[in-house]
Specification:
Elements: E1 12-26, E2 32-47, E3 51-55, H1 62-69, E4 77-82, E5 85-86, H2 92-99, E6 102-105, H3 119-129, H4 135-148, H5 165-177, E7 183-187, H6 195-212, E8 215-219, H7 223-229, E9 232-237, E10 240-246, H8 247-252, H9 257-264, E11 314-318, E12 321-324, H10 330-333
Parallel strand pairs: 3-8, 3-9, 6-7, 7-8
Antiparallel strand pairs: 1-2, 1-4, 4-5, 9-10, 10-12, 11-12
Length: 335
């Protein structure tokens, strides 16, 4: 992907600042005693027409971030600005209107479709909910979307159980496109598919993006997939965004120790090639009780005393390359 995309403020479609989502843990008496800090102060920009990949281990908060942006779950704190409007302040018709422009493709193509409804209805339902078009216009729109994702009119009458996983995910994409969105959150859209089918769905996503000028927030744990589709990548660890950079720059020169460890585990399609594997020691901390200071210090091979008490700030170490690590704090790293 092109990592030289113009990134001035004029092209910012979505701006996320200080996003938090804490889930309450209640006692037997119904009182909130603790919080699971699923997202804890996440900030990034999403530029119009790009694909921003969000990667990290399972449970790091990637999917929660995507769902919070769309308000499928309500964030605890922070600011989400879409085309100059604070999404968290919108209500009623304003929220309904902006939701037409922000859609989602879910991870599980089976459970995201109603097994009792035909494929045609699944795609038409968003148009019905938003009261768009006549019955005939909606039918024509659905048939057009089916064709766009590679299906004939015959599939309009099929049920989800009659389709393969890849076919169901194509239907999920067609449904997300029904309202002509500008932003689509893709929540691990290929993780449940066979490798051969993954490439077909990925190519389809890219073709549709090029044709319609879509913007993707692409959530995944497969770093090879993200490298193929993303313009920029953000790396999450325990609810925080520890590094973000243009894709090729991140893969060529990862800065954060956690990012280096993740990339060292990516298989190389060459049996003669060798790579030093960076193994992290210790258990992954719980979001119920995250470490003080740098959240990664309990597993970091380069830990300093300051890491245990001082929260690192996100710094721009290279153009558009941000890292949240004390190794790049000149005052601390010199000690």
């Amino acid at each position: 992907m092109d990592s030289t995309r113009q990134t001035d403020t004029q092209n910012v479609l979505l701006r996320v600042r200080g996003l938090k989502k804490w889930f309450p843990v209640k006692s037997s008496l119904g009182r909130t005693v603790r919080h699971v800090k699923a997202i804890n102060d996440v900030s990034f920009d999403l530029y119009e027409g790009e694909t921003f990949g969000l990667v990290g281990e399972s449970g790091c908060g990637k999917s929660t971030t995507g769902r919070s942006i769309l308000r499928l779950i309500e964030p605890t704190a922070g600011e989400i600005t879409y085309r100059g409007k604070n999404v968290l302040e919108l209500k009623g018709s304003e929220l309904r209107s902006i939701r037409q422009e922000m859609q989602m493709v879910f991870q599980d193509p089976h459970s995201s479709l109603d097994p009792k409804k035909r494929v045609g209805y699944a795609i038409e339902e968003p148009l019905i909910i938003h009261r768009l078009g006549s019955k005939q216009e909606r039918l024509e729109r659905v048939l057009s979307l089916l064709e766009k994702v590679g299906f004939s009119e015959e599939y309009y009458y099929r049920y989800p159980h009659e389709l393969s996983g890849g076919q169901r995910q194509r239907i999920g994409l067609a449904r997300a496109l029904a309202l002509n969105p500008r932003l689509i959150v893709c929540d691990e859209p290929v993780s449940a598919l066979d490798v051969s089918i993954q490439s077909q769905v990925m190519n389809l996503l890219q073709e549709i993006q090029a044709e319609l000028g879509l913007t993707y927030l692409f959530v995944a744990h497969d770093l090879s997939v993200v490298r193929h589709i993303a313009d920029r990548v953000g790396v999450m660890y325990l609810g925080q965004l520890v590094e973000q950079a243009p894709t090729e720059q991140l893969y060529a020169e990862p800065l954060h120790p956690y990012t280096k460890s993740l990339l060292s585990a990516v298989p190389i399609p060459n049996p003669r090639a060798k790579r030093e594997r960076i193994l992290l020691r210790g258990e992954i901390p719980s979001p119920l009780n995250p470490p003080s200071g740098c959240i990664f210090h309990t597993r970091c091979p380069f830990v300093m005393e300051a890491c245990k008490s001082v929260v690192p700030k996100s710094r721009e170490v290279a153009p558009n390359h941000y890292v949240q690590c004390h190794l790049y704090d000149e005052d601390l790293s010199a000690k």
